[in-house]
Structures are given as C-alpha cells and as structure tokens.
C-alpha cells in the first residue's frame, strides 16, 4: 500500500512510470464497499453501521437518530465487555459481541478504532 | 494493717496560696509478698487462653428517610465530533466521513471485521440455535404447589385526610396503569377539607400518582374506556357523570348537567359497546338507570326506572348499587339493588315497562358486586351481605351455589378472567378470599389478610394474575397470584360447566317440588269450608299475636298448677299449715310468670 489518496478529485494526467490514480487505494475502497454491501444483502440483516472510536457513525444504512442511539449505547457496552474480558485474563481480548434479544440479534465486531455493528433478524 | 501518711501544716499557713514544686519520688510503704500464701495455690502449666487480635466492631441499624426520586429526561446533542466539524452541517459531516473512509486503517479494519461478521451472519441463517425441539413436552403442567399470592406493591393515598378507595379500573392495554376513585361513602361524614381528587397510578412509580383527576365532587366509580384508553368515565358522589381525556389534562372534559343527573351517588357506570365508543350508562341508588353519550352530556339519552311492579313509580323504585354489562350480550344488562334483588333487564324492549325482564332475590342486604361468568355468561356471581352467591338465569327462585355466612360483610367480588371456576371476594375485615370450586366448595382455596382495615373494592387484571384491592384508608394493594390460580387447568371448563348444570338442575327440581307442595296446600284449602278459609287471610297480625299469647300463658298456667298439686301431695303429710302458704306462693309465682312471659322450667 502506498497511501495514495487516489480518489480525491485530482485529475492529473498520469505521467509514465508512475502508478495510475486509480491505484490500490481505490481498489481497497471498492472492496470495502463491496463487503458492506454484501453484508447488508444477507438474509435477515436489518441494518449495518460503522462507528469510529468517538462514537461517530461513519457508514450506516439506518436513519440518523437510530444510528446515533445504537452507536452511543453499543460503544459503551463494547468497552465494558472488552474491559471485563481483559480483567479476567489480561492476555485475552474481545473478538466479537452478540446480543440476542426477542426481536433480533445485534452483532458487534470491535476493532482498535472502529466498530462494525450489524442488526439481524434470524428469521425462521 | 492500716497505712497512714501524716503531713503537718502550721495554722498560720492555712489559706495561703499553694506553691507547687517538683521533687523526687519517695517510697513510703513497701509491703513484700508473703510466700506462705503461695502454698495455697497450685501452679498450672500450660495455660490455655484465647486471644483475638482484631478490630472490635459494633453493629448498628439505621433507617434512612425515604429518598424521593424523580425521573427526568436528558436531552442529548450529538457529540463526539471533532471541534472543527459542526454536526448540524450536513456538508461538513459528509466531508468528515469521506475523509475517514479513505483512511488506511479504516479499510483494513472493515475488511477484517467484515469477514468475521459474515461468518456469524451465515451461522445465524444456517441454524436457529434456540429452536424448541421438544415442544409438546410442556403441556404437562401439573402444578402441585399450594395456591399462594403475594403483595407486589402498595399504593397509598398521598392526601393527609384519607379517603376510601371505592373503585378501581385497569388500563385497557398494557395494564401498567391503574385508575383509582377515592371518596368517602359514609353518609354526610366526609371530613372537612377532604380532597375530591382521584388518581391514575403508574405501577412503575408507586410513590406518586401519574395523573390527577379533579372533579367537583368526589368520584365513586371510575372506568377506562375499553376502546380509547385516554378517556375515562367517572361517577360522582353528587350524582353527576364526568368524563376525562387524559391528553387534555386533569380537569373534567365533559360533565353532565345537575338537573338531569342522578339524585344520589352514582354507584355503577359502565362503557357500552358501540361503534362510536362514546356510549355509557350509569345507575344510582335513586332508582334510575341512565344512558349517556359523552359527546352530549347535557341530557341522558334514555332513562329506566327500576320499579319492579313495572309501574314506573320513582317512589317504589329500588336503589341500584351495582351494574353489570357483558359486551357479548349487548342488549341485556343487570342491576344489583340495595334491597338485595337482582333485576335483569332488556334494553331493546319496546315499552319501558317491558324493560325489566325478571328479578332474582336472595340476598339480605345490598348487592355490592354483580358479574357474569366470562366463560358461561348464563351464570353470574353476586356478592352482598355475608355471602357470595352464584346464580343461573334459568333458576329464578334461588341461587344455585352459595358460600357460607362469613363473620364479616362481603364488599366486592369478581370472576377470574382466565379460569371459569375461580372467583375473588373481599371482606370488611381486610381479607381477600380466592375461591376455586372445582378444588374446594366449602371454603376458599386461599384466604389472605391484605390489610387491617376493610377492603372496599377489587379488580382483577385481564391476564388473571394481578389483583388490585382498595381499602378504607385509600391504600391500594397489588397482589400477584400463583401460577396455579391463573392458568387454565386441563378439563376445567368442562368441570365448571358440569357443576353449573348440576346445581341448576338441583334447584329446578327443588323449585318444582315447592310448587307442587304449594299447589297441594291450595287444593286442600279449597276442599274445606270456603268461608272460613276466606277469613283466615284477613286475620290481622295483631289478632294472631294476641291469640298466640293467650294460648301460651294458658299453657304455662296449667303447667304451674300441675306442679303445685304435685308439690302439695308431697308435703301434705308434713304440715297442713304450709299448704295454704304454698298455694298462695304458687299463685303469686304463676301471676308473676304470666306477666313476665318466661318459659316454665
């Protein structure tokens, strides 16, 4: 990865010998798009959200107020779960959090800086 | 041995100021130990002593004052955005988001998290981990536990001057709220300054009522509209009917005019099933049943006078204390009166006289509760005087089942909405009885003392689990009954209906027999002298009484005479002189007793 911000609206004529503006950055970005789209298209998935460490929703398929609510609440819960796992065994770390409720299941995949939240209705 | 220390002071130095000074310690007395005493003791080696080295602690109890809490909402504003981004500006937020999306970390993170997430999603879709594999097993619910009930919550009247809780109504959906009507039913003994307010309580917050209803006169009954949960109907102590909309506030939304309202407290008010959901009817001890439309409360739409002679005379009308209406039988309704008679009426009758269909009498006092069995509407429960009775519409002479006479007056009763054989009654001594007549017929299945004062009203929630009872001091107690009493037992419907049918048949047979006997007597009477027999009914009560008295005294007198003669025969050989005395005594006694009307021993 070369950190090329390829999609920033620069339309420079590409000089020879240099990688094109549609470089690896754009490919990766497309991959992200595709991943999120794929997740959203799975059976029973009601909503997908990406939230950063400050609780700001980066990507979401739900409306703003719901997203903000989920972001705030789940962020805190994930932090708490992470610290619990760490407290019990400092070598351990939280990999995934699943909350099953009567109506649906909320799945949270935590990362150092981001949270991927998916709400699925395991329809039977 | 006396130890003495002498110090000398000159008389001239008395009263002088003290001068203190330091000096070395002086040994005044030295008493050495006496070794002979040691021989009286035996040395003990080793010695066991318990030692504890710890902090000494003491236990105290503290009861803090009740902490008043109030729930308030907080208004959140979206935060977390960096300082240069204004969260309200769409452009800025979009720009920020786009920036983040280009971050390398983001891309890495999402791809990784995405794959984990997908795995879990697919897992969910592949198999339902909570699937019930043994569904049919839970039908075996033989609950052998003894019936029990426990108090969950107590709602106290926040007013200083306590009033009784006279009526309760559960919120139609959700059952999280309870409307309680407070008033003082002692005639003209309502204390000065008693508040007229009634409350709607939210069970989540038992310390403070959620909504306050402010009528002009205390409410005797209060009912939620089953179709519209914001509307409540209240019957006032002064005979008016008031209507509230909780969205509009605590003041009365509609009030019936005094001239056309009842003349006595409204004891029963029920909403009717109608397309508009605005019709209701009310009954009061002034002997009238009135129908209202809450959109126009100035006049009742219909009035029926409870005169069982069917002559519509208000003077002869019976006062109504309870009202019953079942939405599955919309044209019929029943009224329980102060005189102990249940009147069954038909609303759709053409003439007002035909409105009254039939009467059932059997109680000695006012009928405080009247309710049809939710499963078998032909049978209904009445609660009054010291018993609760179950009636069948087919048997008009008497009730088909009744409880024994209790020590305390019964004040209210209700069927359980989930079990046809279970009903609840409350008593003046603060006891709640739960009866289950497929289980036990002579006693209640469970008898609970809810509070020390009298319980005035009772309401069961639609799921049959929760019961609210209101007491004389305005305390409403919420109880939860055990599972066994609120789940339908297998075969219970059949058993209950069989019991009802059997008892109805028994009563019918008894009725038929009574009728036969009466006919026979009539036949006999007609066989004898007609004129003589005609006189008998015209005998006045007083004449009969004097006749009975005369006979009674004659019998006593003759008995006494007999005793005297016997006594005389015994004492004759002894002293003839005493005979006369005894005779006189006997006569005196006879006269005394004749006046006093005492039974001869």
Protein traits:
heterodimer; A: 124 residues; alpha+beta; 5-stranded antiparallel beta sheet; 2 helices; B: 601 residues; 4-stranded antiparallel beta sheet; 28 strands; extended; disordered C terminus; microtubule (chain A); motor protein (chain A); Dynein light chain roadblock-type 2 (chain A)
SSE topology:
The complex is a heterodimer of chains A (124) and B (601).
Chain A: H1 24-41, E1 45-52, E2 57-60, H2 64-88, E3 97-100, E4 105-110, E5 114-120
Antiparallel strand pairs in A: 1-2, 1-5, 3-4, 4-5
Chain B: H1 35-38, H2 90-102, H3 104-126, E1 149-155, E2 164-170, E3 177-183, E4 198-202, E5 211-213, E6 219-224, E7 231-236, E8 241-245, E9 254-255, E10 266-271, E11 279-284, E12 288-293, E13 302-305, E14 320-325, E15 332-337, E16 341-346, E17 356-361, E18 367-372, E19 379-384, E20 387-392, E21 401-402, E22 410-415, E23 422-427, E24 431-436, E25 446-449, E26 455-460, E27 466-471, E28 476-481, H4 483-486, H5 492-527, H6 530-538, H7 541-571, H8 576-596
Low-confidence stretches of chain B: 576-601
Helix percent band of chain B: 10-25%
Sum up the overall morphology of chain A in one term: globular
Question: Main β-sheet of chain A, in a few words?
Answer: 5 strands, antiparallel
| Rg of chain A, Å, rounded | 18 Å
Q: Main β-sheet of chain B, in a few words?
A: 4 strands, antiparallel
Rg value of chain B? 42 Å
- The outline of chain B comes out as extended
- The number of distinct β-strands of chain A equals 5
Low-confidence parts of chain A lasting 5 or more residues at pLDDT below 50? Answer: 1-12, 14-20
**Could you spell the SSE succession of chain A in H and E letters?**
HEEHEEE
Specify the structural class of chain A: alpha+beta
| Major sheet strand order of chain B | 1-28-27-26
Q: How much helical structure, as a percent, in the residues of chain A?
A: 25-40%
Average pLDDT over all residues of chain A: 80
**Mean pLDDT over the full residue set of chain B:** 83
First-last Cα distance of chain A: 43 Å
> How do the strands of the widest beta sheet of chain A line up side by side?
2-1-5-4-3
Summed up, the helix count of chain B is: 8
Q: Give the oligomeric state of the chains in this entry, treating copies of one chain as homo and distinct chains as hetero.
A: heterodimer
Beta-strand percentage of chain A? 15-25%
């Amino acid at each position: 990865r070369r950190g090329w911000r390829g999609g920033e609206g620069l339309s420079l004529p590409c000089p020879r010998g240099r990688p094109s503006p549609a470089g690896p950055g754009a490919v990766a970005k497309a991959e992200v798009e595709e991943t999120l789209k794929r997740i959203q298209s799975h059976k029973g998935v009601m909503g997908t959200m990406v939230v950063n460490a400050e609780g700001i929703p980066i990507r979401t398929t739900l409306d703003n107020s719901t997203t903000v609510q989920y972001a705030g609440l789940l962020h805190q819960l994930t932090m708490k779960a992470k610290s619990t796992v760490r407290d019990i065994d400092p070598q351990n770390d939280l990999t995934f959090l699943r909350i099953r409720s009567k109506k649906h299941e909320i799945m949270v995949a935590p990362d150092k800086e981001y949270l991927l939240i998916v709400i699925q209705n395991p329809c039977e | 041995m006396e130890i003495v220390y002498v110090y000398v002071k000159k008389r001239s130095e008395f009263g002088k100021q003290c001068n203190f000074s330091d000096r070395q310690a002086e040994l005044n007395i030295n008493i050495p130990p006496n070794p002979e005493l040691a021989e009286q003791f035996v040395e003990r080696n080793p010695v066991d002593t318990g030692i504890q080295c710890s902090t000494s602690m003491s236990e105290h109890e503290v009861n803090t004052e009740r902490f008043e809490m109030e729930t308030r909402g907080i208004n959140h504003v979206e935060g977390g955005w960096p300082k240069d981004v204004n969260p309200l500006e769409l452009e800025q937020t979009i720009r920020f988001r786009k920036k983040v999306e280009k971050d390398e970390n983001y891309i890495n993170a999402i791809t990784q998290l995405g794959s984990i997430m997908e795995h879990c999603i697919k897992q969910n879709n592949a198999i339902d981990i909570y699937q019930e594999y043994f569904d049919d097993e839970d039908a075996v619910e033989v609950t052998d536990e003894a019936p029990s009930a426990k108090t969950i919550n107590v709602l106290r009247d926040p007013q200083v001057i306590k009033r009784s809780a006279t009526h309760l109504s559960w919120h139609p959906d959700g059952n999280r709220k309870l409307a309680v009507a407070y008033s003082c039913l002692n005639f003209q003994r309502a204390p000065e300054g008693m508040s007229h307010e009634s409350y709607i309580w939210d069970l989540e917050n038992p310390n403070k009522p959620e909504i306050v209803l402010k009528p002009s006169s205390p409410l005797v009954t209060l009912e939620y509209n089953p179709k519209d949960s914001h509307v409540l109907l209240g019957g006032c102590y002064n005979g008016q009917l008031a209507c509230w909309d909780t969205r509009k506030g605590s003041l009365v939304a509609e009030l019936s005019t005094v001239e056309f309202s009842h003349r006595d407290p409204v004891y029963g008010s029920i909403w009717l099933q109608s397309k508009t959901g605005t019709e209701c009817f009310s009954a009061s001890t002034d002997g009238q049943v009135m129908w209202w439309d809450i959109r126009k409360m100035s006049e009742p739409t219909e009035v029926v006078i409870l005169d069982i002679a069917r002559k519509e005379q208000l003077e002869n009308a019976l006062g109504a204390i309870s009202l019953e209406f079942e939405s599955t039988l919309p044209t019929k309704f029943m009224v329980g009166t102060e005189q102990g008679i249940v009147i069954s009426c038909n609303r759709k009758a053409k003439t007002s006289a035909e409105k009254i269909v039939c009467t059932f009498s059997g109680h000695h006092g006012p009928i405080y509760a009247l309710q049809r069995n939710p499963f078998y509407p032909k049978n209904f429960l009445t609660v009054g005087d010291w018993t609760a009775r179950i009636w069948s519409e087919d048997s008009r002479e008497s009730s088909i089942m009744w409880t024994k006479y209790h020590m305390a007056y019964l004040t209210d009763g209700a069927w359980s909405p989930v079990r046809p054989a279970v009903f609840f009654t409350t008593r003046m001594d603060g006891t709640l009885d739960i009866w289950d007549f497929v289980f036990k017929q002579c006693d209640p299945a469970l008898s609970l003392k809810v509070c020390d004062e009298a319980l005035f009203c009772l309401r069961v929630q639609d799921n049959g689990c929760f019961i609210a009872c209101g007491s004389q001091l305005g305390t409403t107690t919420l109880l939860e009954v055990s599972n066994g009493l609120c789940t339908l037992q297998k075969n219970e419907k059949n058993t209950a209906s069989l019991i009802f049918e059997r008892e109805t048949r028994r009563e019918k047979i008894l009725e038929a027999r009574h009728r036969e006997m009466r006919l026979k007597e009539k036949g006999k009477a007609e066989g004898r002298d007609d004129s003589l027999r005609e006189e008998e009914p015209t005998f006045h009560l007083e004449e009969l009484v004097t006749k009975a008295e005369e006979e009674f005294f004659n019998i006593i007198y003759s008995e006494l005479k007999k005793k005297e003669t016997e006594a005389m025969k015994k004492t004759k050989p002894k002293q003839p002189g005493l005979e006369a005395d005894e005779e006189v005594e006997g006569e005196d006694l006879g006269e005394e007793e004749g006046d006093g009307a005492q039974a001869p021993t």
